[in-house]
Amino acid sequence: MHKGLDIVDKIINTDEIYEILKKRIVNIEYEPGQVLNEEDIATEFKVSRTPIRKIFQQLNADKLINIIPRFGAQVTPIDFKYMKSVFEVTREIDPFAARLAASRISKAQIEELEEIMDRFQTYDLDKDYQKAINDDERFHDIIFLSSGNQCLADLLKGLHLHTERLWHYSEQYIDSMDIFTDTLGKVLKAIKEKNYEDAEKYAREHIDAFVEKIKQEML
Known about the structure:
mainly alpha; 3-stranded antiparallel sheet; 3 strands; 71% helix; 5% strand; globular
């Protein structure tokens, strides 16, 4: 039984169960290759197997699990070939979102980005890696939302499920907070100055820095 059982009483619908299972996969609480049993999950959340089957279909569409008939659902392995395709897309449209954000972002959203950058400066990577990843994702989510383009935001949020999962998977290889603070700080500065070209440039550099780190350490 998963340690998250104490939240079961708060579950009110299948959407929440879906979000919990998705988070467990992205955070590597369910390890790549692990088999998830439909009946066990249904028992944990005190629901029938029917909604769990539907949730598995959603996670399968997200490419987070593979459904194996008469066996269960297997958490997808980290597929570096697929991740290469993800990064080829995100390095084009992440910067586009940053460019749009530079002209459309609200004062409140800028303030939240500044708060994230302030927290980055206080983190000890060994102790606070999870917090750093969470804030990195929140930073990107704010930019996606502030782009004012819902289609773009939805597309990027789906793709970032996989990049965030890789961040978790790569924890042992990340040895400096600079990978968070350097380019993201430049992105924020460019957005505040409404410098569209630099916002794009540094958003792309942030992705490239992570990809290069993965290449050096894991490939």
